[in-house]
Structures are given as C-alpha cells and as structure tokens.
Amino acid sequence: MATAAPTQFAMATSNVQPSNVTSVKTLTETADLKTIPSIYAYTPTNPNEADVFEDEVSIPVIDFSLLTSAIPEQRSKAIQDLDKACQDWGFFMVVNHGVPESLLKGIISASNEFFNLTEEEKKEFAGKNILDPIRCGTSLSTSNGKIFLWRDFVKLVVQPDQFHAPHKPIGFSEVALEYCNSGRRIVRELLKAISESLGLDNDYVEKTLNLDSSAQVFSANLYPPCPQPELAMGLPPHSDHGLFTLLIQNDVPGLQVQHNGKWVTINPLPNSFLVNTADQLEIFSNGKYKTLMHRAILNNKVARISIAMANGPSFEATVGPASKLVDSENHPAAYRPMNYKEYVEQQQLQSLGKTILDHVRIEFQSK
User: Fold this and answer.
1) Angle at 296 between CA 261 and CA 356, to 5 degrees
2) For the chain, which end, N or C, has fewer CB atoms within 10 Å of the first or last residue's CB respectively?
3) Is 303:223 a contact under the CB 8 Å cutoff?
4) Which residues have a Cβ under 8 Å from the Cβ of 139 and sit 6 or more positions away?
5) What does the pLDDT average to over 258-286?
6) Closest alpha carbon to 13 in 224, 222, 232, 223
7) 243: closest CA among 147, 362, 327, 159?
8) What phi, psi does 60 have (nearest 5°)?
C-alpha cells in the first residue's frame, strides 16, 4: 500500500474540475481516476514539510489505570510520565482506559455507514455555519477556495448544552453518544493530572475553565484512496483549538505528528487512544506544554477513517495563562486572554495552521 507525504516535485494531474461532485468519495466512485483533479494538488508552504522521520521511535504511553490508581506512588509516577509526554512530544497513547474495544470498532463502523449514505441523504446534515450542531461536507465547500483536501467529514457539537447527532444511519446516534461520554471521562481525568503536574490543585483546571460546561466536538473523517497520494493531502499541518484531542482510526495508517522538526507516522497500539495537546493547553500552561502540529496523509489502496474528538473549555470561558503560573519578574504571561468560542470561530475562518495562536502570543524583547 503506497502511503506518501506530499512532494513539491511536479507530476501530471487532471484538469477536470469536479464541479458537480459533492464529496471526494463520490468523485473516486464515479470516475476512473488515474491522476487527481488539479484543484487537489497540494504544495507545502514549508520546504521541510515533506520530510518524514522514518526511524523507529518510542511514542509515549500513558497507562490510564495507573493515572487513576488509588495507590499514591503509582498515580504520582503516571502524572510524571504525562508531564514528560506533554513537554517532550505533545502527544501520547492512552492504554488500559476501560473503554470496550467493541465501542471503538462500533463508532468507526457507524461512521463508515454515515459516509455510505446517499449524497441526497447527507445533504440533510450539511449545515451552513462553523458551529452548527451538525455539519457534514468535503473540501469542495471550503470558504477560501485555496486548499482542496482529499477528505469528507461529519462534525457534531456534542457538548455543552445537549448531544447532537444525525438520525441516519440507524444506531449512529446511540453509539456516538456512548463513545463521546467515554472520551469526556478520559479527558476530565487527564486534566486533573495536568493540574497536579502544573503544581496546581487537582480541580484547578476544572473550575477555572468551567469543565462542567466544556465544549466537545466529534469529527469523523473519511480519506478515500487517492491515485496520487504524494500530490494531495488529507489534512495539512495544523494544531487543534482545544485542550486535548482524542483520536482513533481504522487499521490504516495516515496520522503523522511533528517531533523535533521531523514527521513521524503513528502506528497505534491496539485498543488505544491517540491524544495530542492543543492550543488552549499551551495558553493555559503559559507555554510549558506546546500544542502539537500534525497532519493526515493518504494512500492509493484503501480508505482511512479517523475519529477525532476535540475537548475544550466552556465556549464562554476566557482562556489565558493560569494566574498561579504567572509572575511579572520570572514568568510573565506569554499569551493574551481570548474567549474560547471566538478563538474557535477565528481559527475555522483561517487557513489551517497556528495563526490564531500566533495572534494571542506575546513576543518579548530582550532588554
């Protein structure tokens, strides 16, 4: 199976403009594609973007059962491991989390069934605005018209007010609700540990960012086989807007994370969650934990499905560096406070990347 990162070398593409196609899935099923339509040709903005670190690396693993252990020594060691993973990688795998493997497989299967609905059925859930409770579509509907991604998606705002999900296919809503509740439980425990690793009270993050009303966004992504995976992109390099993002996928690789300036392809442990730090955690920790840049690459044989669950503070929260982590002399605030809902809206209107995080970052000049 050919899996490739985008390259800057010129290769043949089709000049066909799929104006009547409403999804990449439909495009691949209705045309005998040998080359990609030219609008999908992706040019990296960073010369080093295509570099892939292929050497064997040790991905941090967090044992959730130890993180929630009643034995102080075990929990303390797990918190130290989490702190190191967030500082050194901004990424880790969570194992022994208590979520049944059948549920992980079930939500991937249910998402695949959603993508198999007819285009007419999916139009019912298209949505119009960034924070519509239910929104599905493809990169053909991008607002800026500059980047066309080889991806179809369905996004659900499942918290804070109420759970939202499409009523088709049958059973999707029920399994999505169970899955999202499980993910919410894991994130709340991770953030308790983060509070302690930052030297704060166990419930400091929970209270300060109003996690009882925390925002949670469910995204299922379909990356169909691509005839020229080295030319197109599933998702360009970007960081996430929340605190932590949980991700699972089918047995098809495609997630790459940036570590020490190189791209690492992730091959997850069985029945694990992939977790990356996101913008609000970098801001809240006053830069101790850095948001993770990651991307989705393609292959030319089989479809990849990933389920990303972004977990943030309350949409109404104004997020800045935790006051207890700031002092004007040694640790001045490195980020300007910003309302989280406004942050999400602004990020979604920009091209993918860290543009909004850069906007709130305070640059210090040496005296």
Assistant:
1) 65
2) C
3) yes
4) 24, 147, 148, 149, 150, 151
5) 95
6) 232
7) 159
8) -60, 140
Pairing of strands 294-296, 318-319: unpaired
The kind and range of the H/E element at 309 are strand 304-314
Nearest partner of 308 among 244, 245, 226, 214, judged by Cα = 245
User: Helix, strand or coil for residue 327?
Assistant: strand
Identify the structural domains of the chain with CATH numbers, from first to last: 3-11+21-314 (2.60.120.330)
Write the Ramachandran bin of 199: left for phi over 0, alpha for psi from -120 to 50, otherwise beta: left
Prior bond to 6 cis, omega within 30?
Answer: no
Q: d(Cα 312, Cα 320) in Å, to the nearest integer? A: 13
pLDDT digits (tens, 9 = 90+) for 88-117: 999 999 999 999 999 999 999 999 999 999
Tokens coding 216: 């949670």
Q: Do the Cβ atoms of 237 and 51 come closer than 8 Å?
A: no
What letter represents residue 174's amino acid? E
What residue type is assigned to position 237 of the chain? P
Cα 62 to Cα 78: distance, rounded to the nearest angstrom: 7
- Degrees, nearest 5: CA angle 30-141-121: 60
